[in-house]
Design goal:
Elements (H helix, E strand, L loop, with lengths): L7 H5 L16 E5 L2 E4 L7 E10 L1 E2 L2 E2 L7 E10 L2 E8 L3 H9 L15 H4 L11 E4 L4 E4 L6 E3 L6 E4 L16 E2 L6 E7 L5 E7 L5 E8 L10 E3 L2 E6 L2 E3 L1 H5 L9 E3 L5 E7 L4 E8 L7 E6 L5 E7 L4 H9 L11 E8 L4 E17 L12 E6 L10 E5 L6 E5 L4 E3 L3 E3 L7 E8 L4 E8 L7 E6 L9 E6 L6
Antiparallel strand pairs: 1-7, 2-33, 3-6, 3-34, 4-5, 6-7, 8-9, 9-10, 10-11, 12-13, 13-14, 14-15, 16-17, 17-20, 18-19, 20-21, 22-23, 23-24, 24-25, 25-26, 26-27, 27-28, 29-31, 30-31, 31-32, 32-33
Length: about 475
């Protein structure tokens, strides 16, 4: 395992400026009022932004083996009466507490096999890092991870309450980090991949409080990786990549999950369509091989075709890039581009699968009111300079129907996180993004107008500590005190 120095300058020497953002573990802070660097906080922002990510990538001078293994840290920014208050807390998982007490890594993870002698490694459960996404419910915030139960946190203080079974999850049962909330019914759909001789997708439908009300199972064609899915009108759609996980190295703890997975393009990508009401399979079929981490949105068009916008990679090299990310200098080429897939769910065939843009883009999202329905705006992170070692330096808005682009490229050395959409009472809404400035070693929260990104931020708020690059976030609205 590589060694990491605590000196930010030494770690970043000869590396891209963004690497300074991960050179040290995140520092908890707040709650603290946030000062305005430029502009003004929009008066109609009433609610909370929550973001999750790997806040700590090293312990006792040792780097994690993969970005996905860092301990989860949550940023919350509460907006009210034209001001903002920020705080940052690590999710106090059992694994984090045990490793902090021992001052060394104890558990296997996505990239790391278990430590210690062979007889001690057998049967060791991976650490639930609680580091991938968040789901805001009426009475709690869930910190989500791929392969286990979510952790419940206090919405205001981010105090960790503990693991949450949502009414029916068994211990260690997977509940993925990419739930989809129906904007009309409030129902929440999610899944988890259960690995074994007969691997399958466990499906969940929850009510608006998060309590699971319905479950289903869909068999997988192989032991593989499924990271995301789409709610598309009457369907849930899964795109299963030709990635094969070898279970023996996992069982004997010779490899982490990341190194035990291989790219097998001969299998193609399998499309699985599920009825969202019954949680039963409608159809499945195979098509050309590709890999994707994230879906933007899905819906059923007027002609009956299912439309899916997603970020596509030619192969699984993206996983190696993410492994190298923790060193601050990735060298493996891995380019994602936004694509639109159209398919006939009943006839089981692909109608088209074409790029939406030549830009390198990831973390595609749509406004929450458009989830599962037709959309005319896809927001995403993009790279203005397509270099292997660089990170995203811009936020884009794409109309997937017309191809029109609206781009905000930040100053050199400044790097945004995944955009979060916040609806206005009137108008198109706001885009919120956490931006790291590598020249100043400073993180800010920047607010942009969703219908005019190129105009630049309408407000920039200073954060008291550097926020390492994270994964996913959400917004929870609160009623205005004037309403």
């Amino acid at each position: 395992m590589p060694t990491l120095t605590h000196d930010r300058d030494a770690f970043s020497q000869g590396k891209p400026l963004w690497s300074r953002g991960i050179a040290q573990p995140a520092v908890e802070f707040g709650p603290i009022p946030l000062s305005v660097i430029a502009g003004q906080v929009p008066a109609d922002l009433h609610g909370s932004l929550y973001r999750n990510g790997a806040g700590q990538l090293e312990r006792a001078g040792q780097l994690v083996d993969h970005w996905f293994d860092g301990d989860g840290g949550i940023l919350a920014i509460h907006f009210s009466q034209g001001g903002a208050t920020g705080l940052y807390r690590y999710v106090q998982t059992q694994g984090l507490q045990a490793e902090a007490a021992a001052n060394r890594y104890l558990y296997p993870g996505y990239g790391k096999p278990a430590a210690g002698p062979f007889w001690q490694r057998l049967g060791t459960q991976p650490k639930n890092a609680a580091n991938t996404s968040v789901l805001a419910l009426p009475d709690k915030l869930l910190a989500l991870w791929e392969a286990g139960n979510p952790h419940a946190l206090d919405l205001d203080t981010l105090d960790t309450v503990g693991l949450d079974d949502l009414g029916s999850l068994s211990p260690h049962q997977p509940y993925s980090a990419h739930p989809k909330r129906d904007p009309q019914t409030g129902d929440i759909y999610n899944f988890g991949v259960v690995l074994g001789r007969r691997s399958y997708i466990q499906l969940y439908r929850s009510d608006g409080t998060g309590q699971i009300r319905q479950q289903g199972q869909i068999p997988l064609p192989r032991t593989t990786l499924v990271h995301d899915f789409v709610l598309a009108g009457p369907y849930l759609v899964f795109l299963v990549p030709p990635v094969v996980l070898s279970l023996w190295p996992i069982l004997f703890q010779n490899k982490g999950f990341s190194d035990a997975m291989g790219w097998r393009p001969q299998y193609g990508t399998q499309v699985i369509v599920v009825d969202r009401q019954t949680l039963e399979e409608v159809s499945r079929f195979e098509t050309d091989p590709w890999f994707q981490w994230h879906m933007g949105n899905g819906y059923q068009g007027a002609d009956g075709a299912v439309v899916i916008d997603y970020s596509r990679y030619d192969n699984f090299d993206t996983n190696q890039w993410l492994k190298e990310f923790v060193t601050g200098h990735p060298t493996t080429p891995a380019t994602g581009r936004l694509f639109r897939l159209r398919l006939d769910a009943i006839a089981s065939n692909i109608l088209s699968n074409e790029p939406l843009s030549d830009l390198e883009g990831e973390f595609p999202i749509v406004p929450p009111h458009a989830v599962g329905h037709p959309h005319d705006a896809l927001f995403f992170c993009h790279k203005s300079q397509p270099k292997t070692e660089e990170y995203f330096d811009g936020i884009g808005r794409l109309d997937p129907n017309s191809g029109a682009l609206d781009l905000m490229t930040f100053a050199q050395g400044c790097y945004p996180s995944e955009p979060t959409y916040v609806a206005k009472a009137q108008g198109s809404g706001w885009i919120l993004t956490v931006v790291f400035d590598g020249h100043r070693d400073q993180s800010t929260l920047q607010i942009l107008s969703a219908d005019n990104l190129a105009a630049g931020p309408v407000c920039v708020l200073a954060l008291p500590e550097v926020i390492p690059f994270g994964f996913h976030g959400t917004w929870q609205s609160k009623p205005s005190s004037n309403s």
